[in-house]
Amino acid sequence: MKVIGLRHRNTALLVVALLGGCSSPGPETSSSSHWVSCTQDADCATVPGANSCEDGYCVDSGGARVEVTDGGSTTGDAGATSSCDPFASPEVAMTLATYLGGGEDADGISYVADRTGSTTRLFVSDGDQLHRVKVTGTGSGDEAGKQFELVTFERDGNVMNLYLTTDAQGTAASLIAGNWKPGSPPSGTEETPLTFIDEATARTLDLAGWTNETWTEYFMTVKDTGEFVVVTRPEVDWTYEDFRLFFGEPGKLVERPVSNVTRARDGGSTTIEFELDGKPATASFPFGGSASITVSGTELSLVDPASLPAAAIDVESLPYECLASK
Question: What is the pTM of this model?
Answer without folding.
Answer: 0.65
